[in-house]
Amino acid sequence: RAASRAPGAHSVCRLLTRRAHGFYARDAGVAHRKNLGLLRKIICQGSTKFKNVWTTHSASPIAYERGRIYLDNYQCCISSIAQEPRILYQKPKCSKSEKIEDALLLECPLGEMLPSPSDYKSSLIVLTVQNWLLRLSADSGEILEKIYLAGSCCKFRYLSWDTPQEVMVVKSAQNKLPAAARQVSIQQSVLFYLAVFQVLPLSFIGMLEINKKIFGNSVTDVAVSNGILIVMYSMGLVRLYNFQAISEQFMEQPFDLGCEFNWNGQVGVVGKYPFGLPCNIKITDTPPLLFEASSLENAFQIGGYPWHYIITPNKKKHKGVFHICSLKDNALAKNGIQDMQCCSLEPDWIYFHPDMSGRIIHVGPNLIKVLKLKEVKNNTDQMEIAEDFTIVANRENSVNNAVTVTASGRVVKKRFNLLDDDPEQETFKIVDYEDELDLLSTVAVTQIGADGRAHLDFHCNEHGILLKSIPLLESWDVTYSHEVYFDKDLVLHIEQKPNRRFSCYVYQMVCDTAKDDECSSHEKTESVFCKKGGRIFEY
């Protein structure tokens, strides 16, 4: 007979099991989740307002990353956390040769030993016009690392993540011969260069070229994402290849940053001027094809569970029609053709929900559909698309009446109907997901004449219920370009006006029980201007 357990042994076993699965009452992650749950409740309660605490304007693009606002081509960094603008650093104006082309924010990984104390703080990876890759301190702008990529043979322009915060890809602009060279029939076979790095510590994985002799003449773009090399073609074709298999098969020699090398008759140091990085992944034969699909404008997405993909049939008449198919056998899901049949200037858009639930978000001018994949009843091999919930724009005061009666009693019939995204009707412009608070955010806009009004709404991500609505005080012109960021207790609106004029409006959460509060009033109040670091801020 088995011996009976000691008193409390069941509780200990249960605790150890829960801890093995990540549940532990004293764990920092549990405390953090509880704090975020409390913050969500505070944000959504009726007495909480979002106040426009300050505004600034710029003649150059404005970027936002994790509580930091970057201006003047990343030469000025402002903290958005404080109620007043606090300049973290401001560098002298850079020359055209030092212009930054692209940037990525690099966060410290958890649970890893790093070689330098500076690696434990956030940093900014920037790419300059002269092919320098720099790692800057996010708080001071100090240069922590410098890597020279290549000489004039190619111009690197774009930064992206293969695996977020782990593997980074630097892509060149497409190589194009000068007109004089094309006239004398000089052939250019290399279309793009890709340099791939492991981050923190920053290490070189390899550089490869996308050659038309291998991939074909009609390649228009290329990317690396989640270990997949994605090649796009002019006729709408998208082909997927295993990037890890390519790097293992065609890697000629691995190199470490800062080490001396002798490569193709050149002697230098990896990542140093003037040699830069060797192109050490030479694809000499067409790699095995994982998957290919044809889609209008190369629009192609993979997601869901089990894996599915979304395409638009490759004909212009099908624009706005989306097919959701199984990645396993290309079978169209039941109800897998999604078409809102909207008549609008701007097309509707669709994408897999970023919350990793496998759901799909389909956004039209006045309707947001959240869809889910589920097994067809009595057929476990087929999936169907079902509606999880919808969010509908408020169009109670619709102006699209076909017949109107004037004050004199004359009946007037309209000869045309308004578009679905006519500015005079409330229209969805932005849909985003706040992962830490598990809230779905939407921006809806109504513009009558020159005066446009927008509001940011927070919805329950699980059921779509409206939890909070925040009016944006500044006028919203639908013809301008807009970005809205919702980052926990902060709302940021960046607007691009004509003639390269940019504005940034910062809203912060305040708790106030007053019914009538200036936070939500559209009435103009007297502005206060303040000058800090040579920059003017408006309160």
Q: Describe it for me?
A:
The chain is mainly beta and 539 residues long. 9% of the residues lie in helices and 46% in strands. The protein contains five helices and 38 strands. The strands form ten sheets. Strands 34-35-36-1-38-37 form a six-stranded antiparallel beta sheet. The chain is globular. The relative contact order is 0.11. Residues 1-5 have low confidence and may be disordered.
Features:
six-stranded antiparallel sheet, 539 residues, mainly beta
Distance between the termini: 78 Å
Give me the side-by-side strand order of the main sheet: 34-35-36-1-38-37
- Average pLDDT taken over every residue: 87
- Poorly predicted regions are 1-5
The description of the largest β-sheet is: 6 strands, antiparallel
* Beta-strand content bin: over 45%
Radius of gyration: 27 Å
Write down the oligomeric state: single chain
Number of strands: 38
Apparent shape: globular
**Helix/strand/pairing category:** mainly beta
Number of helices: 5
Portion in helices: under 10%
Pfam family, one: DCAF17
Keywords: Membrane, Transmembrane, Transmembrane helix
Organism: Oceanodroma tethys (Wedge-rumped storm-petrel)
InterPro entries: DCAF17
